Amino acid sequence: MSLAPRAVLVHRTTEYEELVARYGTHGQAAFVLASRGRDIEEIAARHQGTRRALAQVAAAVPLTWRQARVERADLERFLFAPEDVVVVVGQDGLVANVAKYLTGQPVIGIDTDPGRNPGVLVRHRPRDAAKLLAAPGGGCEELTMVAAEADDTQRLVALNEIYLGAAGHQTARYRLGLDGDRGAVEAQASSGVLVGTGTGATGWLRSLWQERGGRLPLPSPTEPHLLWYVREAWPSPATGTSLVSGRLDASAALTLTVESDHLIAFGDGIETDALHLTWGQRVRVGVWGERLRLVG
């Protein structure tokens, strides 16, 4: 007997909840903000909007389904099941946060604050939840993801981009190579390397793309291609700057061999979830085999 679907509602602690947790009470938080020329009521209103959206989405889950909630900080400890339908209630970044824990489950993005969120990944309103849950597998876009795999079996997956470099964004030293480039490698000293997807082309990757004049075509979110850029490569007698940008297709990869005491790789801006790499280690970055199934 197959299990009934489970709706997993993913959310994050609101700014208001963080303020009250820090200062103890609403009144004390309001006093501190007022001393800085800010009004807590705007933040409290957004908090109430998020709570209403969560309640509306929860009420839209079919009665025959199971239901669970998970806060962003607990995602790494939550076990997703094949029959889950993931409903992200919040901002675009929350979809990226959950993507690396999934293996094909459909994701519905619910925007709790239209006008403040770009709505690239949270494309729907709370009132649409019942209709979307009635046919969660229909109309899904399959978004390309990026993965970094180290030679000691460490692996990191991201939806937008992966950054490789020194903690604190200091100078990183490494050797950079490309698959299929007749073994060519270059020793580099830089502020790190960024490898991004078409989804990431709306964020950090786009800023680098614009800085470099937009010469490489940006991939769409569903294309199996990645763009990569070296940040602030430094020329010296021992380091070069000839390999500073490029495009990777699904079968290619960028290889980085560490020549610093400690480098890290993190995805989607979450530095607390990182690969830790030491001198001589090799990490390979390319298109990940799994895709995020986002309900359009």
Automatic annotation (TrEMBL):
Family matches, as SUPFAM superfamilies: NAD kinase/diacylglycerol kinase-like
Protein name: Inorganic polyphosphate/ATP-NAD kinase
Single annotated GO MF: NAD+ kinase activity
Lineage: Bacteria, Bacillati, Actinomycetota, Actinomycetes, Kitasatosporales
BP-aspect Gene Ontology terms: NAD+ metabolic process
Domain of life, source organism: Bacteria
